[in-house]
Amino acid sequence: METRNETLQEELSLKLFVVLTRTFESIKKRVEADIKCLGLNTTEFAVLELIYSKGEQPIQKIGEKVLIASSSITYVVDKLEEKGLLKRKPCPTDRRITYATITEEGTAFMDEVFPTHKKSIEEICAGLDMDEKKMMIEQLKKLGFYADKLK
Protein backbone atom coordinates (compact mmCIF):
# COMPACT_ATOMS: atom_id res chain seq x y z
CA MET A 1 0.00 0.00 0.00
CA GLU A 2 1.25 3.48 -0.96
CA THR A 3 2.03 5.92 1.78
CA ARG A 4 0.94 9.56 1.75
CA ASN A 5 4.56 10.58 1.17
CA GLU A 6 4.89 8.32 -1.92
CA THR A 7 1.67 9.75 -3.36
CA LEU A 8 2.91 13.29 -2.75
CA GLN A 9 6.26 12.44 -4.38
CA GLU A 10 4.46 11.11 -7.47
CA GLU A 11 2.20 14.16 -7.69
CA LEU A 12 5.14 16.55 -7.31
CA SER A 13 7.16 14.64 -9.92
CA LEU A 14 4.28 14.86 -12.41
CA LYS A 15 3.80 18.56 -11.68
CA LEU A 16 7.55 19.16 -12.10
CA PHE A 17 7.47 17.39 -15.46
CA VAL A 18 4.51 19.48 -16.65
CA VAL A 19 6.06 22.75 -15.45
CA LEU A 20 9.44 21.92 -17.06
CA THR A 21 7.76 21.00 -20.33
CA ARG A 22 5.61 24.14 -20.45
CA THR A 23 8.53 26.35 -19.49
CA PHE A 24 10.75 24.82 -22.15
CA GLU A 25 8.02 25.23 -24.80
CA SER A 26 7.51 28.90 -23.87
CA ILE A 27 11.23 29.65 -24.05
CA LYS A 28 11.68 27.62 -27.23
CA LYS A 29 8.81 29.43 -28.97
CA ARG A 30 10.34 32.83 -28.18
CA VAL A 31 13.85 31.79 -29.28
CA GLU A 32 12.51 30.23 -32.50
CA ALA A 33 10.71 33.47 -33.36
CA ASP A 34 13.90 35.50 -32.81
CA ILE A 35 15.99 33.13 -34.93
CA LYS A 36 13.39 32.95 -37.72
CA CYS A 37 13.80 36.73 -38.17
CA LEU A 38 17.43 36.03 -39.13
CA GLY A 39 16.40 33.85 -42.08
CA LEU A 40 17.47 30.62 -40.39
CA ASN A 41 15.72 27.82 -38.54
CA THR A 42 16.84 26.84 -35.05
CA THR A 43 18.82 23.83 -36.26
CA GLU A 44 20.74 25.90 -38.79
CA PHE A 45 21.43 28.54 -36.15
CA ALA A 46 22.59 25.90 -33.63
CA VAL A 47 25.06 24.41 -36.12
CA LEU A 48 26.32 27.84 -37.21
CA GLU A 49 26.67 28.99 -33.59
CA LEU A 50 28.62 25.83 -32.67
CA ILE A 51 31.14 26.39 -35.45
CA TYR A 52 31.27 30.14 -34.81
CA SER A 53 32.01 29.54 -31.12
CA LYS A 54 34.12 26.37 -31.21
CA GLY A 55 35.75 26.47 -34.65
CA GLU A 56 35.58 23.92 -37.45
CA GLN A 57 33.92 20.62 -36.54
CA PRO A 58 33.86 17.16 -38.13
CA ILE A 59 30.43 16.96 -39.80
CA GLN A 60 29.94 13.48 -38.28
CA LYS A 61 30.25 14.92 -34.74
CA ILE A 62 27.99 17.99 -35.07
CA GLY A 63 24.76 16.11 -34.37
CA GLU A 64 25.73 15.00 -30.89
CA LYS A 65 26.96 18.48 -29.99
CA VAL A 66 23.78 20.32 -31.02
CA LEU A 67 21.39 17.47 -30.17
CA ILE A 68 20.00 16.78 -33.63
CA ALA A 69 19.76 13.55 -35.57
CA SER A 70 22.90 12.71 -37.53
CA SER A 71 20.69 12.07 -40.57
CA SER A 72 19.73 15.78 -40.57
CA ILE A 73 23.27 17.15 -40.36
CA THR A 74 24.13 16.79 -44.05
CA TYR A 75 20.93 18.59 -45.03
CA VAL A 76 21.57 21.42 -42.54
CA VAL A 77 25.21 21.82 -43.64
CA ASP A 78 24.03 21.84 -47.29
CA LYS A 79 21.56 24.65 -46.50
CA LEU A 80 24.17 26.72 -44.65
CA GLU A 81 26.63 26.13 -47.48
CA GLU A 82 24.04 27.32 -50.04
CA LYS A 83 23.62 30.49 -47.96
CA GLY A 84 27.40 31.01 -48.03
CA LEU A 85 27.74 30.76 -44.24
CA LEU A 86 29.63 27.44 -44.02
CA LYS A 87 31.87 25.41 -46.27
CA ARG A 88 33.12 21.85 -46.24
CA LYS A 89 36.81 21.15 -45.82
CA PRO A 90 38.31 17.68 -46.27
CA CYS A 91 40.59 16.39 -43.52
CA PRO A 92 44.14 16.26 -44.89
CA THR A 93 45.01 13.09 -42.96
CA ASP A 94 41.77 11.06 -43.10
CA ARG A 95 39.60 10.97 -46.23
CA ARG A 96 36.62 9.70 -44.20
CA ILE A 97 36.41 12.98 -42.29
CA THR A 98 35.03 16.25 -43.60
CA TYR A 99 34.95 19.40 -41.53
CA ALA A 100 32.33 22.12 -41.54
CA THR A 101 34.03 25.48 -41.26
CA ILE A 102 32.56 28.98 -41.11
CA THR A 103 33.10 31.34 -44.04
CA GLU A 104 34.05 35.01 -43.78
CA GLU A 105 30.42 35.81 -44.63
CA GLY A 106 29.26 33.45 -41.86
CA THR A 107 31.58 35.07 -39.34
CA ALA A 108 30.41 38.57 -40.33
CA PHE A 109 26.79 37.43 -40.04
CA MET A 110 27.32 35.94 -36.57
CA ASP A 111 29.36 38.96 -35.43
CA GLU A 112 26.34 41.06 -36.32
CA VAL A 113 23.48 38.89 -34.97
CA PHE A 114 24.96 36.98 -32.04
CA PRO A 115 25.08 39.89 -29.58
CA THR A 116 21.36 40.51 -30.23
CA HIS A 117 20.64 36.79 -29.79
CA LYS A 118 22.48 36.75 -26.45
CA LYS A 119 20.52 39.81 -25.33
CA SER A 120 17.26 38.12 -26.33
CA ILE A 121 18.15 35.03 -24.27
CA GLU A 122 19.00 37.31 -21.35
CA GLU A 123 15.59 39.01 -21.66
CA ILE A 124 13.82 35.63 -21.74
CA CYS A 125 15.63 34.56 -18.57
CA ALA A 126 15.20 37.90 -16.79
CA GLY A 127 12.41 36.40 -14.67
CA LEU A 128 15.14 34.96 -12.45
CA ASP A 129 17.90 36.84 -10.64
CA MET A 130 21.53 35.68 -10.82
CA ASP A 131 21.39 33.48 -7.73
CA GLU A 132 18.16 31.85 -8.92
CA LYS A 133 19.73 31.17 -12.34
CA LYS A 134 22.79 29.56 -10.73
CA MET A 135 20.57 27.43 -8.48
CA MET A 136 18.32 26.44 -11.39
CA ILE A 137 21.33 25.43 -13.50
CA GLU A 138 22.69 23.22 -10.72
CA GLN A 139 19.32 21.62 -9.99
CA LEU A 140 18.54 20.94 -13.65
CA LYS A 141 22.01 19.45 -14.19
CA LYS A 142 21.49 17.21 -11.16
CA LEU A 143 18.12 16.08 -12.47
CA GLY A 144 19.49 15.50 -15.97
CA PHE A 145 22.48 13.48 -14.77
CA TYR A 146 20.20 11.37 -12.60
CA ALA A 147 17.80 10.75 -15.49
CA ASP A 148 20.74 9.77 -17.75
CA LYS A 149 21.84 7.14 -15.20
CA LEU A 150 18.42 5.46 -15.39
CA LYS A 151 18.99 4.35 -19.01
CATH superfamily of the domain at 25-118: Winged helix-like DNA-binding domain superfamily/Winged helix DNA-binding domain
Radius of gyration: 20 Å
* Name of the top-level CATH class of the domain at 25-118: Mainly Alpha
CATH T-level fold name of the domain at 25-118: Arc Repressor Mutant, subunit A
What is the structural class?
mainly alpha
State the end-to-end CA separation: 27 Å
Pfam family, one: MarR
Keywords: DNA-binding, Transcription, Transcription regulation
Protein name: MarR family winged helix-turn-helix transcriptional regulator
InterPro entries: HTH_MarR-typ, MarR/SlyA-like, Tscrpt_reg_MarR-type_CS, WH-like_DNA-bd_sf, WH_DNA-bd_sf
List the helices and strands and how they pair.
Layout: H1 4-36, H2 42-54, E1 57-58, H3 59-66, H4 70-82, E2 86-90, E3 98-102, H5 104-124, H6 130-149
Antiparallel strand pairs: 1-3, 2-3
Helix pairs in contact: 1-5, 2-3, 2-4, 3-4
Summarize the structure.
By secondary structure, the chain is mainly alpha-helical. The protein is 72% helix and 8% strand. It is built from 6 helices and 3 strands; from the N terminus they run ααβααββαα.
